[in-house]
Write a structure and sequence with these properties.
CATH architecture of the largest domain in chain A: 3-Layer(aba) Sandwich
Oligomer: homodimer
Order of helices and strands of chain A: EHEHEEHEHEEHEHHHHHEHEEHE
CATH superfamily of the largest domain in chain A: NAD(P)-binding Rossmann-like Domain
Shape of chain A: globular
Largest interface: A-B, 142 and 142 residues
CATH class of the largest domain in chain A: Alpha Beta
Helix content of chain A: 40-55%
Distance between the termini of chain A: 53 Å
Strand order of the largest sheet of chain A: 3-2-1-4-5
Strand content of chain A: 15-25%
CATH topology of the largest domain in chain A: Rossmann fold
């Protein structure tokens, strides 16, 4: 099978490396930036490099991994260069506008939920997509043979292909990813204003957690907000309506708070990180070493901690450690921790 | 010195225990609920218990630690029972309405930033307030002699008294605590709706972090929202305006995102948990034991981790650990971690 990767950064390079794990796969790379293409060639992620998209020959799968702003044009160029039986896909984080603008006869959208803090082909990894959800957005008139080939290709990279309507995909991403980023920004802006001359008090970890993603990579996120403007706009409208409703009954919010508690439990228990998980909350003395002791004990028992939060009390003498572990491991983890005379709730 | 504690739960009980660490302090307790008073007596936190507020005699400092809804009436009852040189204070989490409704001649508001996941006098601790900020809200006509006594009393409990205008206090709490709780609730409600029939994808830790406090203790938080309705309402109005502004320019948000990045850094670097801290971000293989290894190494070196977040990549093979340590320890922590061939950014 012959694969073309257009745009050879972290994601494109990782697609190339993942595809080449299999016998008989040949990957041709192209990049708008000749220097980036040179780096990819030097890093050994490609079998061949071409200076123009049209120079890539006999390609079965075209993967467009260029920046969001260049996606639509590059998809069109790939479709123009692609033979009749070839499939063109992309890895952009929003889908509806791109899918609407691209020819269904050759293109099906994609979005792998993978990435890293790092960027650049130097950090590309063959296993980047192992176990990752990879959304595919076929249209009703997408040729079945092309979808089947794309599905098989994505699975061969180690990912789990999940078909989703393009508009539903964008709504979902707007709600669980883009809106949280917007609200985190608003929170830091409001707090900075409210502080005035006061020093920020020790409010525990809730403010820090809520604003952890505030101001993330401004260049990338400005592109994401713009690309998903329609779905994010709807989320913002709904958020504004909810806040107006809350505003109107600030003295009657117990049921509303209860509803949020139930919804959060339901959301997280279906497995926010890819499988059913449970949170164990452990009351601990907050001395150096106690976190290590818990983590080490679970590590020795082969129990992976997928998420951890340490909420120290203000006096730093005690705190609560929240640990997320696979549901299958939860009972065993609880036993190991309570055996240390620590209270698990 | 003679202290009266009205309401003997976790906070009231801890005030009693903290006060009684000093010689010559006598603490009398009262509670609306005779059973709670019995439990406090059994737990040994009090020197004496009275069945009626008026039965407490020759009290120098009255500390009202009843639920929010009963604060105003109990403060008035304490003022009625208090002698001329006695000070009445409280520990409620909002201040402006209570301060406005209470006589400045006998009462000065207070709010210790301390507490715990647990409730009830059984969990009261003498060191609960050690190192905690304890806001005091004197009015312009508060007698200086009473403020001085209260300041000294709060410091004697181990806390750091900080004077703040009652309205400014409520604005600050609304911005850094109450608004984050409201927005976390909205996020889970929006996500639940957007999901429809889809399974929640592995979106990394940002959604979980942003919604960690969603649905927290509905009974307590409904009271807090109501008690701080004025300041929280203003925060909600400002939030709605900001969201409408963002909504109107979704394709032009790079400067806005950049602004949020700078503000977050500025806020957190002044020390969200009580002192200057820095975040170290460590790229790690996400195998059992690696978190323990880092924590153990820092623990052995006497470096306390005040906050930690583990963000696994979707494939669970790598991740980024964010560690918050005191700025004074940051360089040493960085050296210890890089010595393990781990990348610190």
């Amino acid at each position: 099978m012959r694969v073309a990767v257009l745009g050879v950064g972290l994601i494109g390079g990782s697609v190339a490396l993942a595809a080449r794990r299999q016998d008989g796969v040949h990957v041709t790379g192209w990049d708008h930036d000749p220097a980036a293409l040179d780096r990819a060639t030097s890093a050994g992620v490609l079998d061949a490099a071409v200076a123009a998209i049209g120079d890539a020959r006999d390609i079965d799968v075209w993967v467009v991994a260029v920046p969001l702003a260049a996606l639509a044009d590059t998809v069109l160029a790939a479709c123009a260069a692609a033979g009749e039986a070839a499939i063109v896909t992309d890895v952009g984080s929003t889908k509806h506008a791109l899918v609407s603008a691209s020819p269904a006869a050759c293109y099906i959208g994609g979005h792998p939920l993978a990435g890293a803090e790092t960027a650049g082909v130097e950090h590309a990894r063959a296993d980047l997509f192992d176990g990752a959800t990879w959304y595919l957005t076929p249209q009703t008139d997408s040729p079945g043979v092309l979808y089947e080939r794309l599905h098989r290709f994505v699975a061969s990279l180690g990912a789990t292909p999940v078909a989703i309507d393009a508009a539903a995909h964008d709504r979902l991403m707007a709600a669980v990813s883009h809106l949280p980023h917007v609200l985190a920004n608003v929170l830091v802006q409001q707090a900075a204003l409210a502080l005035g001359g006061e020093t920020l008090p020790a409010t525990g970890p809730s403010f820090r957690d809520a604003t952890r993603v505030a101001g993330a990579n401004p260049e990338l996120w400005a592109q994401i907000y713009a690309a998903n403007g329609e779905a994010l706009g709807e989320q913002l409208d709904a958020t504004i309506r909810r806040l107006q409703d809350v505003r109107a009954r600030l003295d009657d919010l117990q049921d509303w708070q209860q509803d949020a508690a139930q919804r959060r439990r339901a959301l997280l228990e279906v497995g926010l990180t890819g499988g059913p998980e449970q949170e164990l909350r452990v009351a601990v003395p907050n001395r150096p070493g106690v976190v290590a002791d818990i983590a080490l004990t679970l590590g020795h028992a082969g129990i992976n901690i997928s998420d951890m939060s340490l909420a120290p009390s203000t006096d730093r003498r005690t705190g609560v450690v929240g640990l997320w572990v696979a549901s299958a491991d939860a009972a065993r983890a609880r036993d190991l921790i309570t055996a240390k005379d620590l209270l698990v709730t």
